[in-house]
Every structure is written in structure tokens, then in C-alpha cells.
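The instructor's notes for this session suggest beginning with a concrete chain rather than abstract definitions. Hand out the sequence below and ask the class to guess, before any prediction is shown, which regions might be ordered.
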Amino acid sequence: MSKWLALALAVLFIVAFTVWRIVSTPQAPIVVVYVSHDQVFSEPILKDFENDTGIKVRAIYDTE
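After discussion, reveal the predicted structure:
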């Protein structure tokens, strides 16, 4: 009986550890940028910012 209990506890530990790692994984910070310039000119600058800082940029461009 103790073999089954040890096996059950080991499986429970593995499942709990896996769920904890998935839930506790930090998300990259996101910044929202409202851009009045054309996308073709501003997008390379925003991509450089993402690469330099690791902060994800969500750009909202002008609709004119």
C-alpha cells in the first residue's frame, strides 16, 4: 500500500509543480503607444524599442 501512496504523492507533486510553473510565468510588460505618424515610418522605431528593452509595444495608429 505504501508503494501506491508514494507513487500517488510523486504524481501529485509533478502535476502541482507543472501547474505552478505555468501559472507563475511572468508576462512581458506591454505599453500602448498612440501614434500620429504613418505606420511605415514609426514601426521600425517601435520594433527597435521592443528589441532594446524587451517591452512589448502595442501601437495604435492614426485612422485618417
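Then share the key points. The radius of gyration is 23 Å. The longest strand covers residues 30-35.
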